[in-house]
Amino acid sequence: MAIDHDCDMCDGASFCPKFKSALEISNIGFTTVFVAELVVKLLGLGIWRYFRTWLNWLDAAIVVVSLIEIPAVLQTFRCYQTVHTDCEEYYRCEAGVGGMSVLRAFRLV
């Protein structure tokens, strides 16, 4: 999250669209890893033992929210890939992101 705020599209930094596109791709990559982890835990523990712990409930909720956020992430990625002439158009690219990836910090608990 801190890396994302260091790149301002209107400052003329040409690396920003590529950089922010890479962040969106990493968002999808992390979501894939978290889904795989959830599936492995569900298969290993079984559904009943998995959901006995409140931390697993939190983990599952964060993974579901991350999956719901994927279409917005893809839309933002596509927007960064197009050529924009005005810096305000870049800010419109970020308008579609829900910002729910902040919840991933709770996975560290």
Q: How many β-strand runs?
A: 0
Rounded to the nearest angstrom, the distance between the terminal CA atoms is: 18 Å
Global geometry: elongated
Spell out the helices and strands N to C: HHHH
Tell me the structural class.
Answer: mainly alpha
Q: Which bin fits the share of residues in helices?
A: 55-70%
Return residue spans where pLDDT drops below 50 for at least 5 consecutive residues.
none
Helical element count? 4
**Mind telling me the C-alpha Rg?**
17 Å
Largest beta-sheet characterization: none
The average pLDDT is 77
What fraction of residues sit in β-strands? under 5%
Give a short synopsis of this structure:
With 109 residues, this protein is mainly alpha-helical. The protein has helices spanning 16-45, 47-50, 54-81, 87-94.
